[in-house]
User: What shape does this take?
Amino acid sequence: MSRLQGRVAIVTGSSSGIGQGIARRLAADGANIVINYVGHADGAQETLKMVESAGAQGVIVKADVSKVSEAQSLVEEAWNKFGPADILVNNAGVETKTSFLETKEDDFDHIIGVNLKAPFFVTQAFARKLAAERKPGRIINISSVHEDMAFPGYATYCVSKGGLRMLMRDLSVELGPLGITINNIAPGAIATPLNKSLLEDEPKLNALLAHIPLNRLGTSEEVAALTSFLASEEASYVTGATYYMDGGLSRYYNE
Assistant: This one.
């Protein structure tokens, strides 16, 4: 039997990149998938094809998870389609480069809304459903090495991911008695469409690789594999932890 057979996973922001890779892997491991998107309908359809090709069922739900009502509707749709969903992957995320001195309120609100407010309220809706039915569950947040590492020019992004780290730690205590685990995956540099300009800029790419001990970028498939483990029964005693996937970047020091 596949490790996630009979399970149901909600994956926010799963129309491209890491989220799409996670949806495909969880489907291959037996879970039915709730595919969430906000602006990339074609990508969501592509993810659905991947899910169905893997032998699982999928449903597409358009929702701006930074809005509480839509975050709640996403969880309701999952239950309406598949019954109890017991895996939540908070993957949706955005980043914008702007110096701290030039950051505008709208930029701050948008990044905090998607990266921190959304996981807070999607998780709340998800946990309320599980608690009402006395069912256990798994929550995996796709965070970033910048939940811990400084990143000049991205102060708001760092704040959002640092907040996600503390949210995860707090909820591991609050939700643990309900049988709900929560962990973060903190990727470093991952080869995704979002990084297309970096991948095509050889000098810039090489400068980055010089700071990664494994001397390569990570892949969405690697992030997805760890997500599958954390969603599985094999990780039933794992909660309150951040798993770094950065090729050693955050530990690199060179005098």
Summary: The chain is about 45% helix and 15% strand. The chain has a mean pLDDT of 95. The beta strands are 8-11, 32-37, 58-62, 87-90, 137-142, 180-187, 190-191, 218-219, 242-245.
